[in-house]
Hints:
This protein is an alpha/beta fold. It has a single domain, classed as Purple Acid Phosphatase, chain A, domain 2 (4-Layer Sandwich). Helix content is 21%, strand content 24%. The protein is built from five helices and eleven strands, in the order βαβαβαβββαβαββββ. It has helices at 13-22, 42-48, 66-72, 113-120, 151-160, and strands at 2-6, 28-31, 56-58, 77-79, 83-87, 90-95, 128-131, 164-167, 177-180, 183-187, 193-196. It has a six-stranded mixed beta sheet with strand order 5-6-7-8-10-9. It is globular, with a radius of gyration of 15 Å.
Amino acid sequence: MKILAFSDLHLARARAADLVAASAEADLVIGAGDFCNMRQGLDQAMQLLAGVAAPMVLVPGNAESADELRAAALPDMTVLHGTGTEIDGLRLFGLGYGVPPTPFGDWSCDLTEELAGQMLDNCSATDVLITHSPPKGLGDLTSGGISVGSVAIREAIERLQPKLALCGHIHDSWGQRGYLGATEVVNLGPTVNWFEVDH
């Protein structure tokens, strides 16, 4: 299956246009959160993606809530948050929000490590794990060199060993890739990222 994946669109019109154009080649499109800014403009963000030519699976970032994303999602979009789905035999599980809680204040949708861990425990097996936040120690460095990823997400990747673990959230680490065991972990960013996954 040919997958196009991105994160942290943040209402960037030109980035969205690139993604829509590339989606003509995709079997599945994955969006790993933060489609809008500070809970504003989510409907507009979905309209920017309206031309995507493949099924989409989305998780909420810390810039939109799960309920807000479900309400704004277009007909061919599936929203995951502590839940999974299967598309053409490919198993996907998603967890949105900032983990651990961000310093950004009341508008940010965040989860504690404990709650994130409980929600990830709902997953017993998956081919692709989609989270907004990166795992602790991979794709999670701020510009100041501080590791701000999630222990609960890292533990879930180590336990589940999906083929792919896709995330975003930490802008300074966009494009970072690495492995946790057999799992490739990628902090996506708002660019066109291609993956081939057999299932």
